[in-house]
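thread: overnight batch results

M.L. [08:02]
morning all. the overnight job finished for the chain we discussed friday. pasting input first so we're all looking at the same thing
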Amino acid sequence: MNRLAELVPRRRPRGGRDVVTSVAAGARRGPLWRQLPAYSPLTLHAAWRAATQALRGRDDPRPRVERLLRALYPAREAVLLGSGTHALDLAIRVAVRVVGEPCVVALPAFTCYDVATAAVGADVHIALYDVDPWTLAPDLESVTATLAEGARVVVVAPLFGIPVDWDAIERCLAAFGALAIEDAAQGQGALWRGSPLGSHGALSVLSFGRGKGWTGGRGGALLMRRFPLDGHLATARSPGLSHELAALGSATAQSLLGRPALYRLPAAIPFLHLGETRYRAPSAPRGMTRAAAALLERTLPLATREAAVRKANAEALLARIPPDSRVRAAPRRHPGVSHDPRRPPTGTRAADARERPLAGCRGAGASARHAAHTLARQRRGARSAGAAGGTLQLADGRANRS
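M.L. [08:03]
and the structure it wrote out:
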């Protein structure tokens, strides 16, 4: 029995066997076993039904998915796009148009590289603000310094689905007339004051790619609540047959091989770069495929059930942390807060985090070296905007120009 079986209380018997024990035993089976970096609930049956629906061509599920998103994340408009990166790219373009051009866009210095890709694709000047190592929320002093240097659009991402204090963010930005974009790509299953992440910003972004809590294999969405979408900004390339087939192929492969018992097979293929976080050059936004929309309809019940199981497992793991351990859960400082169940947010003691600011990142599943590497990669990515006069500006006012 592995360490997980020792930590998680035995519960929910199934077929006379303890669930945790059976999972732990299964973890030892076969030479092809390897732990996935992230898991999305996607069955082969769902992929097959989505394929038949998408290739028939008579029933387009995208209008239904738009209505579904407007209902789940109360919004005025829902724009379906080819990826979460495309959705963030479009959100930045809309935000810049609202606050006025030219405009500096502030990004978290520790985040996914695709956030930088979207900003470079939107052809904006980029500034970086710090992230609190204990909560992974924006460091408001750093955000304020970035705003004082001229940033008027701020991308706020609840990393690992840990909700941020949205009221504090809004108060910080209001003094400068700035606008926040809620990047809820990692927020599936998490709540802030009883509402799902992705329903709090004037502009919110969702991602449905591989490894997300709710997946369509590919795809993303921009949710708009206060601002109309200009016609020329809404223009996105329509996906063709090749995009439909690619979406179905990746979803089928994910449903077949995206499990620990077989994951060593795809992970051994170098050009797939599975489990790696890589900077990718921006591409022109395009619409969501019919296949991805059909998958979203069929995987929503799976995602909902999976989120409930993950929350129960996370609570069980947190309850088993010894009282004398240096590991502590990130504080739940506000009512109605529910973390993303994909990873229990943990860190060192608050005093240790203050003494060693990046130590909290290690406890939260990241590393200080990775945080520094992310900052360096975002600097390089931001410099690629130099062909259009792009500037990378740090929170302390220093600027790196290409």
